[in-house]
Design brief:
Alpha-Beta Plaits; five-stranded antiparallel beta sheet; single chain; alpha+beta
């Protein structure tokens, strides 16, 4: 029996309108809740890198991965859940701050090696980068002061060492050499 676990998928996709919608729709159709999805340009012009975190049984996630591989704009998708990875998330936290609580908030922020990036008469905005546990811990400590807003990027990840470098290099040649897939029109 497969237990539910968080799985991290990384996809190199063509940088075109509608790709994110097609990818997320595939997960929706399979009843997967996307815990986080982060998308940005990659080192290869014309390709974006998606990091998708889902909660599901390994075999079910593997089936979704195979379906993603069939999406026209997806160049490559891999499950890096079992690989040694470097993963980070960014969060901005706007916390209520008064003259009497400001110094305590600053001390907590310093302990987490976070940064204060905005100071207003009634609030501070804190920027923190790290793994999910670090961000959760800082957020939980700041909650007692009153968190006004929270914005998180979701996880971005890369495989450690040479494996990550060769994966990207292999994708470059695959993009240049692969034939253009043509989407078939649905019958009316």
């Amino acid at each position: 029996m497969n237990s539910k676990t968080k799985r991290t998928l990384v996809a190199l996709v063509e940088d075109r309108p509608g790709v994110l919608n097609r990818v997320s729709s595939l997960f929706r159709r399979r009843n997967f809740n996307i815990e986080s999805i982060a998308v940005g340009h990659s080192e290869q012009p014309g390709l974006s890198r998606m990091t998708i975190v889902v909660d599901g049984a390994t075999t079910a996630v593997e089936q979704v991965r195979k379906q993603l591989d069939k999406v026209i704009e997806v160049v490559k998708v891999i499950d890096i859940s079992e690989e040694p990875i470097v993963a980070r998330e960014l969060a901005l936290i706007k916390v209520h701050a008064t003259s009497s609580t400001r110094s305590e908030i600053i001390e907590i922020v310093d302990i987490f090696r976070a940064n204060i990036i905005d100071v207003a008469p009634g609030s501070l905005i804190v920027e923190v980068t790290g793994d999910e546990d670090k961000i959760d811990s800082l957020y939980n400590l700041l909650r007692r002061f009153g968190v006004k807003e929270l914005s998180r990027t979701g996880k971005i990840a890369m495989v450690r060492g040479a494996a990550g470098e060769t994966t990207v290099e292999a994708e470059k040649s695959e993009v240049e050499e692969r034939p253009r897939r043509i989407r078939k029109a649905k019958p009316a």
